[in-house]
Amino acid sequence: MMDILDINLFKKYELMRYNLKNFKELDPIESILIDQIKFKNYYFKKKGIFINCISLNNPLKYQGWKIHVSASDDNYLNVLLIVIPYIISLGISFKVVDEVGKNIMLSKNFPREQTGKFITIYPQNIIQFRTITYFLNKKLRKYTGIPVLTDKRISKNNEVSFRYGAFKRILGYDNEGDPIYSIINKEGIKECDDRVIGHYKPDWLTKDPIKVSTISTVDNQTKSMLKKYHFVDALQFSNFGGVYEAINKENNKRVVIKEARKYIGGTAFKKMVPEDVRAIRRREYKVLLDLSKRKVVPAPIDYFETKDGDYLVEEYINWNLLKHIRLENPIYYPNASEKEYLTYLQKIAKIFWNLYKTINIINTKGLIINDLTPNNIL
C-alpha cells in the first residue's frame, strides 16, 4: 500500500512539473513553488503574469478579505521563501507574480493601482486572516516593498496590506452592458468590485477585520515638501509616478512636481543608482540645473527624496504645446486666405529653427534627447 501511495505522489509531482514546463523553463519563482508544494494537495494554474496555487483541501470562497504582500526587485525571492512555506502549511490558496511578470509589474505602463501585489493570499475566515497578518507583519519587518495603492497598510515598510474583494471571478455588467469585476453585497446583489486607489472595502462593510494602529508614513522630506507646496491638480499618471501642478506657498507661483516611485523600473535600471526610476529623476535634476541657464528647459526649483519616492519641482511654463499648434493650420479652414497660410508657415519655420538651435545646445553638453515629441515641446 505504501509503495502504491508513493508512486501516486511521484506521478502527481511530475505532472505538476510538466504543467509548469509547458509554459517555459522553470524560473526561480516557479522553482521555489515546486520545491515547497511538491506532494501537497494544490492545483496550479498559470494566468497572465500570475501563478495561481489553489488548495484542494480548502475550497476557494467567492469573496472576502485578501492579503497582499509587497516586495522589491531585490528582495522578492527572500520574501517568497518566508511567506510561501507558512501559507502552504495552513493549506490556504494564494497566487504569486512570476519572474517575467515581476518585471512587467515594475514597468512604466503597468496599472499603478495593481503594482506591488506580488503575493495575494486568500484566507478562509477572519481567524486565518488575523493569524496570517500577525505572522507576516512580524517576519517581514526588515523588508521594504512598494505601497499597494488600493489597500489599507498594516506594516510601516509597505510589505503587508489588505482589501476586501473577489477571490473568484464574478462577472457583472455596468449600465452600458460592459463586463466588470463584481462582488455580492449584503442583499445578494452584484456590485462593482472597485479596484481603485484608496478604496479598500465596500461601503456596506463598516468594520475592518483587524485594528490597525495609525501608521505614520510622513517622513521629514515629505513634511518639508507639503509645508512649502500645495498640490492643486494631477496632470498625468504612469506607474513610474505622477506629474502634479502645485502652488509655492512662499510666493504663490505655480510649479510642476514630478514623482519617481521607489522600486519601480525593473531590470532596465540594474546598472543605475538607485536601481529604479529615481535614478532618472535625479539625473534629470542635475541636467536641468545646467541647461536652464541657457533658457532651453524649465528651471529646477527643489528636489525631495522621501521614504516612498523622489519629487522634482520645476518652474511652471504656461505655453502651448507644439502638438496644439497644428490646429492653427489654415488647411483646416476652407476660407483661409493666402496671407494666413504664409503667417502660419513663418510661425512653424521660426519654431523649428529655435528647436534646431536648442537641440544643438543640448548636444554640445554631451546629451542626447530620446523622447522628442510634440507633447514635450513648449
Describe, in plain words, how this protein is organized in 3D.
With 378 residues, the protein is of the alpha+beta class. 31% of the residues lie in helices and 23% in strands. It contains nine helices and 15 strands. The protein has helices spanning 2-21, 28-37, 76-89, 99-105, 126-139, 220-228, 278-291, 322-325, 338-364, and strands spanning 42-47, 50-55, 63-69, 94-97, 119-121, 152-153, 160-166, 171-173, 179-184, 190-192, 229-238, 241-248, 254-261, 300-305, 309-315. The strands form three sheets. It has a seven-stranded antiparallel sheet with strand order 1-2-4-5-3-7-6. A hairpin with a 5-residue loop joins β9 and β10. 26% of the residues are buried.
Q: Sheet with the most strands? A: 7 strands, antiparallel
Mean pLDDT, to the nearest integer, reads: 86
| SSE succession | HHEEEHEHEHEEEEEHEEEHEEHH
Oligomer: single chain
In terms of per-residue confidence, which ranges show pLDDT below 50 for 5 or more consecutive residues?
A: 1-18
How is the largest sheet built, in terms of strand order? Answer: 1-2-4-5-3-7-6
- The amount of helix comes to 25-40%
Report how far the terminal alpha carbons are from each other.
Answer: 79 Å
Global geometry = elongated
Number of strands: 15
Strand residue content: 15-25%
- Label the structural class: alpha+beta
State Rg: 26 Å
The count of helical stretches stands at: 9
